[in-house]
């Protein structure tokens, strides 16, 4: 084995020759979720690649129904007192019933909304008359390409979303002059949308829906505008009703933007028209080549920071759909698995960047007015799993979107902590919207009564510091960390029998248990995941306060509470318990596995530090079963990687690809390929990383869970905690070369199997 240590300014000694990173198809998308996603982190679209008529749905992440509102129940502290009275009497039925009263008003979050659709029709173009059709998403450049032949002319389309210019750019060309005859127009599902044309620009403005049968929609305060500028090279343009027509052009470039009046969770003072106009005006000063080069200069270095080669492609000539079909029939395709890894990274860059908000349940790729889960941010696993691969796969800039999101969440969450619980600090529950509703939502305490999500999000934000121990970043997140700790200082209650400091009300996300009278209930005391998350929060706070040399007394208090949290409990089956007491699960095979949080994303339970607890986790996993695909199965890949069980991890990965695969998902996939698709894909990306390299427990482990299917390979640009970059090459399943690059003057501890 060859080990090399170098500074990050030195030239790489390992260069990975990875396969082309693209999805490719020989037909246009027939259904919405077969389209290809692009995005600037804020403004995005889905590209179907149609020949007959292209309809491109586009969205802005901040477009929601309603406006700023306060959902908190002012009677909350009295309700909490009553819940605790029932809970300490082991009256779980009444504790659960009482918890319904904590739900916010309105009971559910507002709706994320689609903005509009850009329609394009090329005169005389029909798929039936075309030949040689292809469409692809090149992840190396974040460009969608559409090509076909018609009447001896080759037509090409390039589409990309530019983060620097915050516009979507569409370029139509032909290999013969004067062959492009294009009509373009806007449509929208928003009833209030009004369209106009000024010179060579199409403009659409509106508000959001104001009512929906059976739902509480707050009066619309959100205003939006979209605009597309059509620039022809050669030919002429004209207006026909609501359409902008281009005739006999050599090439056409369309520059599209959208904006809203949203500023923050409690501020809608922006001028959406000025915002949108500015995007178009600034982008229009650049030529197409300048727009393209600016986009590539921004995107390509970020995506290229991590490269991977897991093995050859059995047949590089076939389409993505054909590769998916082969995988579903049992074939192994290491090159496809590498593409899938990179697709998770692509989605992160398309869906969340600096100065944007975090992923929500559809991100920018929503296509209807009442998207599933209202398009909300779900905070009890979904958003967190999307961010799992960000640090380890070298996309640290994406963390900024989560930080901006949590800064808004904490401001709103301070109001909920005070009004609902009578506590200092801040908290959040399981779902939120762009108005940052931090109260329990959707009524049912099985999922709604879960004030742990703020602390969980702090684990993700603090992890960024562990990967890049920059004290300036730590100073920025410290008030958020401190506020979350202050909440639990006040929220925890002492059990008079055991002396444990317990959460109450407490639930295990979306699961329930059976009480001794056969009732299905949800609310209890000190659920396992609560204790695990608080333990992580307090440890991180103690470390941060010591690094920053502040809040000594508060740090001492955190150390005392750490000693009073309940330890991990092992139940009658030998399983790691989900609740403080060994309750019978209402659904043994439930999709959520929050009682195993201490394994991943935390590292409180590891195979070397706590082997007896690992056995209990294995029992819990076996009892859970593995029928749940999608995000739940992706989480399991990470568990088995942490347990250094490569074949189990790979089996789940292969089944995931067969069930979910790329975008689009197979028609009979058991998940909806929207946010759950994003989440599953990015969870898999994190899992593949954990199979190749781990950096928890103060050591860097190389190839800890390498499956036999990846016999030969290489990876460049993985990141390890402590401020290290990792490059590796392996052959016949054994590490042959590794380069550790240090960003700081620090030593590291390595673990690797003897070749």
Q: What is the quaternary state of this protein?
A: single chain
| Name of the CATH first level of the domain at 23-64 and 110-308 | Mainly Beta
CATH topology of the domain at 23-64 and 110-308: Beta-galactosidase, Chain A, domain 5
Q: Strand-residue fraction? A: 15-25%
User: Can you count the helices?
Assistant: 17
Physical arrangement of strands within the biggest beta sheet: 2-7-8-9-10-17-14-13-12
Helicity level, as a percent range?
Answer: 25-40%
Strand count, sense and barrel status of the largest sheet are:
9 strands, antiparallel
How would the global form be characterised? globular
Tell me the name of the CATH homologous superfamily of the domain at 23-64 and 110-308.
putative glycoside hydrolase family protein from bacillus halodurans
How much is the radius of gyration in Å?
26 Å
Second-tier CATH architecture of the domain at 23-64 and 110-308? Distorted Sandwich
The pLDDT mean sits at 94
SSE-based structural type: alpha+beta
Distance between the termini: 7 Å
Number of strands: 31
Could you list the spans in which at least 5 consecutive residues all have pLDDT below 50? 661-675
Domain Glycosyl hydrolase family 95 catalytic: 287-692
Domain Glycosyl hydrolase family 95 N-terminal: 25-264
Domain Alpha fucosidase A-like C-terminal: 694-753
GO molecular function, one term: alpha-L-fucosidase activity
